[in-house]
Amino acid sequence: MRHGKKINHLGRKKAHRMSMLANMACSLIEHKRINTTVAKAKALKQFVEPLVTKCKEDTTHHRRLVFAKLRDKESVTELFRDVAVKVGDRPGGYTRIIKLGNRLGDNADMAMIELVDYNEIYNLTKPEKKKSTRRAGKKKPTEDSAVKAEKKAAEPKADDKEAVKEDKKEAKKEDKKEE
Questions:
Q1: Is residue 50 part of a domain?
Q2: 147 with 121, same domain?
Q3: How many CB atoms lie within 10 A of CB 55?
Q4: What range does the domain containing 160 cover?
Q5: Cα angle for residues 129, 131, 132 (degrees, 5° grid)
Q6: How many domains are contained in the chain?
Q7: Which range scores top for mean pLDDT: 49-58, 138-147, 164-173?
Q8: What is the pLDDT of residue 168?
């Protein structure tokens, strides 16, 4: 039984599968989006995302770890130089899979996998979101809350409200007299 074995073998031996995923990852890094089958796209997503996470911290150790998986100097260089800059503030989810339909020849489910930060169509329509944290904590007072607190302090109390109403009436009378 194969309980708990989640890896998709893609009908290949391990060496062939790793070589295929490394080549697809290099193509993805070079072209920023590629078309493939849905199963390969999902396997590629699991292969690429940890590598992109490692590229956020540019150390010799991380470069060697990524090179061991990709085995392509140009891809490693581009990953650490260009891609790392774009994904620096993103906590994860560096790739997007978009299903395209079926292939004409063998009716295989096709998909496009792309690096999220390189798609200008999606990035232009969405406004910049405020950076949020995952942990709840004590809220820091913002400028808006400070302004609201000042307004509340300046706002008249119940006793003063009647005096304010009278002042407003007097001001209206003076305005009418001037006209």
A1: yes
A2: no
A3: 25
A4: 143-178
A5: 115
A6: 2
A7: 49-58
A8: 75
Claim to verify: residue 85 and residue 29 sit in the same structural domain: yes
pTM recorded for the entire structure: 0.69
Give dist(CA 1, CA 118) in Å, integer. 42
Nearest to 56 by CA among 88, 78, 89, 23: 88
Distance CA 165, CA 125 (A): 48
Q: Hey, which residues does 35 pair with through a beta bridge? A: 112
pLDDT of residue 131: 66
64-81 in b/e form (b: 16+ CB < 10 A) is eebbebbebeebbebbbe
Q: How many whole angstroms separate alpha carbon 60 and alpha carbon 74?
A: 15
Same domain, 97 and 157: no
What CA–CA distance (Å, rounded) separates 22 from 35?
15
pLDDT, one tens digit per residue, over 104-123 is: 999 999 999 999 998 888 76
CB 31 within 8 A of CB 24: no
By three-state DSSP, how is residue 23 classified? helix
Does one domain contain both 83 and 48? yes
Residues 49 and 75 in one domain: yes
Per-chain mean pLDDT for the chain? 86
